[in-house]
Design brief:
heterodimer, A: 111 residues, two-stranded antiparallel ribbon, 2 strands, B: 212 residues, mainly alpha, 75% helix, globular
């Protein structure tokens, strides 16, 4: 087994939202993505705290974008998944698949 | 008709209590979401969440620094709370006639002094933990508020008595006022502290040519 630090549930949700959004990943679309696809409400505070943690781990990078009038002249902060972040996400997916595999109770519509 | 501007107080809190100075984009995100139709309640919830989550994650990064700063704040407050009445009482009695009425000069004087000391302790907490001053001051104010919860039974009984007799109202107002004013004084003191910043002009080192 490798020395992977698997992503937590919310970290994984944020990473998947970032991958899906591509170049347009900043606070509001990320929270909308988690809400619509993940079916859970996420506050911006928790999203930014998670993004900061992921950035410290080197899984995410960020850059400041352009300021817009509807934001009171404030710039956006765009996030992007790094190569290491992609690797960790894939590794988490594999680990979850392995854990999932062969559990009859969770197969089909009975669960 | 819906107001196009987000709640002023919430934005003010956001600007002053965001723990990192590089958080302008969060304010921008909240404004953008509000402009696109989110409610005022949503805005308030988000502001509180951003401040609480930001503050707690900041504190968790450096728990010992936060503990040291909060201990200094508590030490200042307890020193005043237990020592000041003994030291100042004789002087104080010559100026004011002692009274238990909440809005008497003597009680108001003590309230003002306590507010000044709490503002000072908030300032000290901010100074001891400069890099994370906002998160630590918030935590200190929270700890004082939690300690103040011990007065809730008294406030509750005064409130029920006030329903029967209006003469209890000043006591109730005083009790509630202290609950709000004490943490507010800490926050005021903590926010008043400004870290000294060295600007570019102050950093210039002048090297004079050696005289022949």
């Amino acid at each position: 087994m490798g020395k992977h630090q698997y992503l937590g549930t919310f970290e994984l949700a944020v990473m998947l939202a970032l991958i899906r959004l591509g170049d347009n990943a900043y606070g509001i679309p990320i929270s909308r993505e988690i809400e619509t696809r993940g079916g859970r409400r996420a506050t911006l505070g928790s999203i930014y705290a998670t993004l900061e943690r992921l950035e410290t781990k080197g899984l995410v990078s960020s850059e400041i974008g352009e300021p817009t009038p509807e934001r009171g002249g404030r710039a956006k902060k765009y996030f992007r998944v790094t190569a290491k972040g992609l690797r960790e996400t894939r590794e988490t997916q594999r680990a979850l698949k392995r854990l999932w595999h062969g559990l009859r109770q969770l197969e089909g519509s009975r669960a | 008709m819906r107001c196009s501007k987000p709640p002023f107080v919430a934005t003010w809190l956001l600007k002053h209590f965001l723990t990192s100075s590089e958080n302008d984009h969060i304010i921008g995100d909240l404004m953008e979401a509000f402009q696109s139709g989110r409610s005022r309640i949503w805005y308030w919830k988000e502001v509180i969440a951003v401040i609480v989550i930001g503050g707690s994650s900041e504190t968790m990064k450096h728990p010992l620094l936060a503990l040291r700063a909060i201990s200094c704040g508590w030490a200042t407050w307890l020193l005043f709370y237990y020592a000041a009445p003994k030291v100042l009482e004789p002087v104080f009695r010559r100026i004011f006639r002692p009274s238990g009425y909440p809005f008497s000069p003597s009680v108001l004087f003590w309230l003002v002094v306590s507010l000044l000391v709490l503002a000072g302790s908030g300032w000290i907490v901010a100074r001891v933990n400069r890099p994370h001053r906002i998160a630590t001051v918030l935590l200190f104010a929270l700890s004082i508020s939690i300690n103040q919860l011990q007065n809730l039974p008294w406030i509750w009984s005064t409130a029920t008595n006030s329903l029967n007799s209006t003469r209890f109202l000043p006591y109730l107002m005083y009790g509630l006022g202290v609950q709000i004013l004490w943490p507010a004084a800490i926050l005021f003191g903590g926010l008043s502290f400004r870290s000294p910043r060295i600007n570019a002009t102050q950093r210039v080192v002048v090297t004079l040519p050696k005289s022949v």
